[in-house]
C-alpha cells in the first residue's frame, strides 16, 4: 500500500496539511493541490523538501487543474472546500461552487483518468437537527439546515452515484467539529482572537448553550486513513462513517477553558443570537454523532471533546 500515490485536495489547509504530514511520515507519495484561499504554504513547510511530496497551486474549479492533479494518482482525499457554515445565508453560490461543483470536477477528472479510490471530508451538518442523538449514519431523512450542510450532502450524493456508475471505491466521512493545530477558523480561533484584542470582554454569539461533539484533527486523520483501508480490503463501493467523539461540550465551556488557559477574567456577553440562541442562521445547536460503526471496525478517538478542546487551545496559544 505504501507505494501508492495519494492526492490531497485542500492539502494546504487545516485538516489537509495534517493529513499530508501523516501520510508522508508513513512513507506514501503525496501530492497536494490547493488554491491557498483558505490554506497556506506555511502549513507545508516541513514537507516541501521531501522527495515524496509535491505541491500544485491551483483552483480545482478549473477542469484542467483537476485533470492534471489526479494524473498518476491511486487515492484521492477530497478535502478542498469552503469550511464556513456561517456564510450559508450570505454566500450560497460560494458553497455551491467550492463544495459541490468542485467535487463534480474531481469526480469527472477521476473518471477520465481512471482513478478509482476517493475519501471525502463530509460533515455532521448533513443531518441538520437530528431527532436521534447520538445520530447514526443510517439516520434519515437527511434535512440539512445550512446551505453548507446541503452542499456537503449534494457532494455525498454525487460521490455515491459516480462510485456505483463508474466502479469507484469511496467513503464519505461525516466529521464532527474538528479542532487542533493549524485551525484558522471556528470557535476556539475566534475566542482567542477576540480576547487578544480586548482582555476585558468576550462576546459569545448565540446563547452559549450550543452543544457539540469536538474531535482533534490527529484523531480525524488516523480515523480516515484506517477506515478507508478497511473498506478497500473489503472492496466496498460506497460507504459512510461518522467520525467524532462520544461526548459534547458547550460554547460556554469552551469560553471558560480558553479564559482559564489565558489567565484572564473578562466579562462575558451573550449576543442571544438568532432563531432560539443559534450563533447564526443554520447553526445546529445540539450535535452528537454515533461512532459505533467506526468502533465496530476497530477505530476510536484517543481524545474526548474536553481533552480535544484543551489540547487545541494549548496548540493555538503556542502557535
Ligand atoms: O465567535 C463565536 C464563534 C462560534 N460560536 C459558536 O461556536 C459553535 C461552533 O462554531 P464553529 O464556527 O467552530 O463551527 P461550526 O459548528 O459552525 O462548523 C464546524 O463543524 C462542522 C461539522 O460539525 C463543519 O464541518 C464546519 O466546517 C466546521 O467549521 C457554534 O455553535 C457557534 O454558534 C460562538 O458562539 N462565537
Automatic annotation (TrEMBL):
Fetch the Pfam families from UniProt. Answer: Epimerase
Query: What positions does the domain NAD-dependent epimerase/dehydratase occupy?
Result: 6-244
Q: Which CDD domains does the record match to this protein?
A: UDP_G4E_2_SDR_e (cd05234)
Family label: Belongs to the NAD(P)-dependent epimerase/dehydratase family.
Listed name of the protein: Nucleoside-diphosphate-sugar epimerase
Source organism of this protein record: Caldisphaera lagunensis (strain DSM 15908 / JCM 11604 / ANMR 0165 / IC-154)
Q: What is the lineage of its organism?
A: Archaea, Thermoproteota, Thermoprotei, Acidilobales, Caldisphaeraceae
Amino acid at each position: 500500500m505504501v507505494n501508492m500515490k495519494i492526492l490531497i485536495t485542500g492539502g494546504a489547509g487545516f485538516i489537509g496539511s495534517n493529513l499530508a504530514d501523516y501520510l508522508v511520515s508513513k512513507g506514501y507519495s503525496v501530492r497536494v493541490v490547493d488554491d491557498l484561499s483558505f490554506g497556506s504554504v506555511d502549513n507545508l513547510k516541513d514537507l516541501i523538501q521531501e522527495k515524496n511530496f509535491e505541491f500544485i497551486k491551483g483552483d480545482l474549479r478549473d477542469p484542467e487543474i483537476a485533470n492534471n492533479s489526479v494524473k498518476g494518482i491511486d487515492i484521492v482525499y477530497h478535502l478542498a472546500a469552503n469550511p464556513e457554515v456561517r456564510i450559508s445565508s450570505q454566500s450560497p453560490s460560494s458553497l455551491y461552487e467550492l463544495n459541490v461543483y468542485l467535487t463534480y470536477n474531481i469526480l469527472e477528472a477521476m473518471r477520465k483518468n481512471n482513478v478509482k479510490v476517493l475519501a471525502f471530508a463530509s460533515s455532521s451538518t448533513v443531518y441538520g437537527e437530528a431527532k436521534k442523538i447520538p445520530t447514526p449514519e443510517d439516520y434519515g431523512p437527511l434535512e440539512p439546515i445550512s446551505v453548507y450542510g446541503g452542499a456537503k450532502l449534494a457532494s455525498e450524493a454525487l460521490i455515491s452515484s459516480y462510485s456505483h456508475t463508474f466502479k469507484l471505491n469511496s467513503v464519505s466521512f461525516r466529521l464532527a467539529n474538528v479542532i487542533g493545530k493549524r485551525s484558522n477558523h471556528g470557535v476556539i480561533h475566534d475566542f482567542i482572537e477576540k480576547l487578544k484584542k480586548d482582555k476585558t470582554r468576550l462576546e459569545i454569539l448565540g446563547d452559549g448553550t450550543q452543544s457539540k461533539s469536538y474531535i482533534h484533527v490527529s484523531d480525524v486523520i488516523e480515523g480516515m486513513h484506517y477506515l478507508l483501508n478497511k473498506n478497500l480490503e473489503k472492496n466496498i463501493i460506497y460507504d459512510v462513517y461518522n467520525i467524532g467523539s462520544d461526548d459534547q461540550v458547550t460554547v460556554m465551556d469552551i469560553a471558560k477553558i480558553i479564559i482559564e488557559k489565558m489567565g484572564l477574567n473578562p466579562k462575558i456577553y451573550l449576543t442571544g443570537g438568532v432563531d432560539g440562541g443559534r450563533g447564526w442562521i443554520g447553526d445546529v445547536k445540539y450535535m452528537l454523532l454515533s461512532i459505533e460503526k467506526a468502533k465496530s471496525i476497530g477505530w476510536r478517538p484517543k481524545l474526548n471533546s474536553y481533552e480535544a478542546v484543551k489540547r487545541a487551545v494549548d496548540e493555538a496559544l503556542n502557535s
